[in-house]
Amino acid sequence: MNEILQQRIESVQAGKNITHAQIEAKRSLREQLERDVENFLAEGGETQVLPIGFTHFKDGVIPQSKAQAISNKERLDREKAIELKNQAIREYKLAVKEQKKQRYEAQIQDQIAVMSKFESNLQNKSDFKRLAAMAGYHPQYLKGAAKGRTKLNAAKWDQVKKLVKSFEYSEKRIAKAIKKPTKNPKRKVPSAESLRLKRLAEAKSEAIKNGEKSFIAECKKCGPAKFILQAGGKVFCYPCHLAHVERLKQKRMTKEQVSTLEQKRKRFTYNSELAEQTKLQGLRYFNGLCEKCGLTEFRIVGGGRKYHCVHCSKASAQKYKKWKRENTGATA
Ligand SMILES: [Zn+2]
Ligand SMILES: [Zn+2]
Fold first, then answer.
1. Could you say which of 10, 40, 118, 231 has the lowest number of CB atoms within 10 Å?
2. Distance from Cα 309 to the centre of ligand 2, integer Å
3. pTM of the full predicted structure?
4. What residue ranges define each of the domains in the chain, with the CATH number in brackets?
5. How far is the CA of 263 from the centre of ligand 2 (A)?
């Protein structure tokens, strides 16, 4: 046991020594070279710089025997062989490309054929969306494929074809089927209103023919009524016109009432503010707005709680005095 271990240690050391010996040899060789150069220079030796392109061959031409001689025929044969190989590669690539193109075209044609047949079988447009959902496509994408704009993945296309084969078409929507026939008979029977308008137009043209400015016809609201013919050929029911004018009048009245109220409010804000200021200044008179007199003298009364127009107040006081005098005179 010990012997084997000892052997191993020795062999590792030997390996180390070899490497060490090699390094030593290289170093001594380098040192030797350096010493030689130093000696050479010390003994008056000179170095010589060689020009660029220096060669020991005559005229710098490498003799034929040294260069590799290739005959023209050999070179041509080699080039020909390379060209043949390249040609074969090109043809192969082209064939593969053509095959791919053909397969592409074939599937596009197949898509158009299968999908157009599917679409012609559809009674309900929502069936197309249903097929797209089953195949996992957006309906718009499948539509593009059906028109040959997009080629579907080959495996996926096989799947779609299977789905189409076993597809259960739903029926036409009933609501749409019923709607159409009901529309036409309605149009054929003229309504009471269109008949009335027709009679009105006839009465109007009759009045124009006779040079009359009014005529009797049927109004939608009033029944038989007087119609007025205007200069421009426009007609209107006279009772309806009167009612319209009346409504306009009332509207205008309300407008006036509203503005009266607004003015009253404005006067109140103006007067009450001025009255407050006047009172604070310890005064009794200010220029306020009176409904009857306009901007005029106002007097604060009732301990500062009230104010009134001086002129109107005098007038009403005189009126009261007169009334009292007349009444007491009557009773006396
Ligand atoms: Zn009317
Ligand atoms: Zn007044």
1. 231
2. 5
3. 0.32
4. 92-165 (1.10.260), 201-241 (3.30.505), 253-332 (no CATH)
5. 15
For residue 291, give the ligand nearest its CA: 2
Ligand with minimal distance to 226 CA: 1
Backbone phi, psi, residue 308, to 5°: -150, 160
d(CA 84, CA 77): 10
Cα–Cα distance for residue pair 292/267, rounded to 1 Å: 12
The answer to whether residues 150 and 141 touch, using CB atoms and an 8 Å cutoff, is yes
Q: 204 alpha carbon to ligand 1 midpoint, in Å? A: 15
Distance CA 207, CA 200 (A): 11
Q: Which phi and psi (to 5°) does residue 276 adopt?
A: -65, -45
**Which range, of 145-149, 201-205, 296-300, averages the lowest pLDDT?**
145-149
Q: Ligand 2 centroid to 118 CA: how many Å?
A: 93
- Residue 178 in this model has a pLDDT that exceeds 50: yes
Distance 273 CA to ligand 2 centre (A): 18
Q: How many residues does the chain have?
A: 332
Measure the N-to-C terminal CA separation of the chain; round to a whole number of Å.
169
